[in-house]
Design brief:
heterodimer; A: alpha/beta; seven-stranded parallel beta sheet; about 35% helix; B: alpha+beta; 4 helices; 6 strands; elongated
């Protein structure tokens, strides 16, 4: 009997990474800017996305959303009220979205042609751990954090915040009653992801939304075709 | 995180590779896990035992190499190891560092197989039937 070492040197998530690379090429060819929104449950991703879709619609941009949840299509119904095409992905217990789920839901999406869209938002399952490992082919990963969650959230979940391209603080309208320490939160975000663009927003009052929309428009203009 | 699905992905990949060595058993699977991969080793080991049962990997040992986070410091113009995941700064000069060079690995490095039929498989024109017989 002989023992031999066989080198593999392959990513455990190779299949997902390959699928995501295919999606990335597909998005680029269609000229659609794809964003992956990640946060804990209850941060206000859906409210933030509702507001974003409404504002984009007013500005004449074409946006659609894929929304991931373990169960129910409540979020899709909420978001659809904005007038944007929305599709729910139910993961039935899986704690994150993966590239295969995205690919499946892009096909046969009635009334949606990728090349007619400016933006596609993917609202991930509420979870600050697992979604960080799964590339969905997105151009921009957005980490969201609400004022009720504690300023040290980025320190507790460095992987996710470090892999983000932009950060959004939500619920700024209730920052004061929550004793939210804005400077500390900003410091912590930058400690994990130096130089990241941070938006301080309220989906309720609309604070910070203009800056966010301006950022989206800037990124859309820079996208490769 | 999702250690159970990771364990399943590992078993799938290793089974594919091991199929090239008919009749062999997988003794060891070596992984490289970055500090930013968010994999909990204990949890992965727990899931491992459940996942390998009844597969060609049953009884295989899991060997994990933890990979530290290395960033590039522009000021020092050097790759430096982070001291803490709570601060992405160069430990030498304190400069913020966002250029990640190492630490996100989630990788199967190699496997060790016991080749029961080494002599036969090393012969190129082994009749098909005999290979099957070894399984």
């Amino acid at each position: 009997m002989t023992t031999r070492i066989v080198e593999l040197r392959r990513g455990i998530l190779k299949k997902n990474d390959e699928l995501a690379a295919g999606l990335r090429a597909r998005y680029a060819e269609a000229g659609v800017l794809v964003l992956n929104l990640v946060s804990s449950p209850g941060t206000g991703k859906t409210a933030f996305l509702e507001r974003t879709l409404r504002e984009l619609r007013l500005s004449g941009a074409r946006a659609a959303a894929l929304v991931g949840d373990l169960e129910t299509d409540n979020d899709a119904r909420r978001l659809a009220a904005s007038g944007a095409p929305v599709r729910q992905i139910n993961t039935h217990g899986i704690c994150h979205l993966d590239a295969e789920m995205i690919a499946k839901h892009l096909d046969g999406w009635e009334g949606v042609e990728l090349n007619q869209l400016d933006y596609l938002f993917i609202e991930n399952v509420g979870n600050l751990v697992c979604p960080s490992s799964y590339d969905l082919g997105e151009k921009i990963r957005v980490a969201l954090l609400s004022v009720t969650e504690g300023e040290d959230k980025p320190l507790k979940y460095p992987t996710l915040f470090n892999s983000a391209d932009a950060a959004v603080i939500t619920k700024m309208d209730i920052a004061e009653p929550c004793d939210f320490d804005r400077d500390l939160a900003l410091k912590n975000i930058h400690e994990i992801r130096p130089g990241i663009k941070v938006f301080e927003t309220s989906s309720k009052t609309g604070a910070g939304i203009i800056e966010w929309i301006n950022y989206l428009e800037e990124k859309l203009a820079q996208r490769e075709r | 995180m999702h250690e159970l699905s990771l364990a399943a992905s590992i078993v799938e990949a290793v089974t594919e590779t091991a199929a090239a060595y008919p009749g062999s058993t997988v003794k060891e699977v070596r992984l490289r896990l970055g500090a930013l991969s968010d994999v909990v080793e204990d949890s992965l080991r727990f899931c491992w035992d459940l996942t390998v049962e009844g597969t060609p990997l049953a009884g295989a040992t899991l060997v994990v190499t933890q990979i530290s986070v290395v960033v590039h410091c522009d000021r020092c113009n050097d790759d430096v190891q982070l001291e803490s995941l709570q601060s992405f700064r160069c430990p030498r000069c304190g400069e913020p560092a966002s250029d990640l060079r190492q630490g996100k690995e989630l990788e199967i490095e190699s496997i060790e197989v016991d080749d029961h039929c080494m002599e036969q498989t090393s012969e190129e024109y082994l009749p098909d039937q005999e290979t099957r017989g070894e399984k």
